[in-house]
Write a structure and sequence with these properties.
It is a single chain. The protein has one domain (about 25-180): OB fold (Dihydrolipoamide Acetyltransferase, E2P). It contains three helices and eleven strands, in the order H-E-E-E-E-E-H-E-E-E-E-E-E-H. The chain has helices at about 1-25, 85, 160-180, and strands at about 30-35, 40-45, 50-55, 65-75, 75-80, 95-100, 105-110, 115-120, 125, 145-150, 155-160. The protein has a six-stranded mixed beta sheet. It has a five-stranded mixed beta sheet with strand order 3-6-7-5-4. It is elongated and about 90 Å long.
């Protein structure tokens, strides 16, 4: 009887480690719930270097329509781009929120509204088909930067991949430079 109790306790002890491992593997994904052009979106926290509100953006002359100007972040200057305009929405007058993107060099994106920080379980994040047809509605450029969506109890928020947005910005900047050098 003592031997059976010891075996049962050992099995329960071993299973407790397995249960803890499963729980950790299903750690919630951290997202920022934002609004761009009035529409709900999400941004992965691991792509964000900082979130700022009412930061002064100094306008700088440029041929790049989406470029708003320069702003200071923790002792460094970063270009700021209008996320709504980059996603195909009409350019916003003065978005309040700035997200500093984790990238090889500082770059910030401005957007309308920060709704909340969300921690969602992995099963609430779904992959989207890459071959969805484009449409002519505002925000039509967003599909190039959306590969997943987050389901909540009452809505679905597409997740904007910031690295993809910044890569497009870099291509536009490089194109503008090469045109100017000609």
């Amino acid at each position: 009887m003592l031997n059976e109790t010891a075996i049962a306790l050992r099995r329960e002890f071993d299973l407790s480690f397995a249960a803890a491992w499963r729980t950790e593997a299903e750690a919630p994904q951290n997202l920022l719930a934002v609004r761009v052009g009035g529409d709900p979106y999400a941004i992965r926290v691991d792509e964000v270097g900082g979130l700022f509100v009412d930061r002064r953006v100094v306008p700088v002359p440029t041929s790049i329509f989406e470029f708003l100007g320069l702003a200071g972040f923790r002792g460094q200057v970063a270009p700021v781009y209008d996320l709504a305009a980059l996603l195909g929405y009409p350019r916003q007058a003065a978005p309040r929120w700035l997200v500093l993107v984790r990238f090889s060099h500082p770059v910030a994106l401005a957007f309308d509204v920060f709704d909340a920080h969300l921690a969602v379980t992995p099963e609430r994040v779904v992959s989207l088909a890459a071959d969805a047809p484009e449409d002519e509605s505002p925000g039509r450029g967003v599909r190039a930067h959306i590969f997943e969506a987050m389901r909540t109890d009452d809505a679905v928020r597409p997740i904007i991949q910031l690295q993809s947005v910044i890569e497009e910005v870099q291509q536009r900047v490089d194109s503008a430079r090469s045109t100017k050098e000609r």
